[in-house]
Amino acid sequence: MRNQTVRAVNRLTARWAAEASGGDGGTVFTAAGVWPLLALLADGAGGPARAELEEALGISAGDAAGAARELLAALAGVRGLRAATGLWAGADLPLEPAWLTALPEGTRGTLTGDPDADGKTLDAWASERTDGLVERMPVALPQGPDAVRLVLASALALRLKWIQPFEEWPQTVHEGHWAGRDLVMLYRTTSLLDRVKVAHGPAGAVTLLEVVGDTGVDVHLVLGGPDTPPGEVLTTGIEAATRARPSTGASLLPDGNPGPGLTLRTVRSESPEPRLGISTPAFEVRADHDLLAHARLFGLEAAADRGSGSFPGISSTPLAVGSARQSAVARFHATGFEAAAVTAFGAVGAGLPRLRYRTRHAQARFDRPFGFLAVHRTSRLVLAAGWVTDPLPYEQPDREAEEAEFWEQ
Fold this sequence. Notes:
alpha+beta
């Protein structure tokens, strides 16, 4: 992946994160799914829409389509990651050959005008390209003057396993934000203290835990102070995870509480190796985003103006962006991580030991709302980001049902 493109996508991720609220159920989003579509739209845009899209992209419109193709091809080459694009247009909508030629390889289809039939086609594409993680295409198909003439979509699906799995235990939380709740808690220990780092941003210290995946993609859990807004925690985390902001590994940090949720001490131990203990809740987060609600962020203000066509390079028929949405999901569990997003633009138009050594012990606890980032290890491209406010509850097993099933077998 080109460094310029990676920086541009990460810039959009950071700007989006700065506006993230987390909501009651948290959030998850992937600018890596939005950016290529904005680039393809910029390639066919004119006037103010072209200038706004260039600002959102961080590169020139003339280079956008090529950068989008290269990015999507590189993403498809990441082990454990699927990336796809799709285009569906009305049979009577003329499309410019030069724009079509510049599109990445992907699905090409026709909108029949029948909302039920077209909806099933689009939903099937979204589900198949994300292995069922996202079941529906995030686009409405009204009839009449607001009928969708063209749909441009991307799908990303990431699955990875941890190099070192967690142990999973039910736990009742007794204090803090989740006090009184029964949660699925994940635990593990490692001798690699520097899997946890602390970075300092405008709003204070942020603790980052790197959980290493088996596919070249790692997940960073990001914890800020109790009163730090999610957007500021995520922004500092993104900068640190992508090495745009310096961070300090736990091996170089002083004893005490050098970062949120992080405790360091020097203790007597039977082993000379340091130890990092980790505890975090398992989580699943889903979110739907209306990109037009943040039209300025994505460079879509002029593009959404139906007063005149903004995409002469796409079609001689005037077109405007009538809808722009993303549906995303992320799951963090004992053995791995999954994330997927479908983005669609609709144009309408861890005996007593012998304690011989003194060594460093660290404990990282994620016991209140926190962020997460899925980062490609080589390029430092942020593939997905999000905020966890509602971790997975522990549900008592139905013993009677289990016994009945056992005797039936």
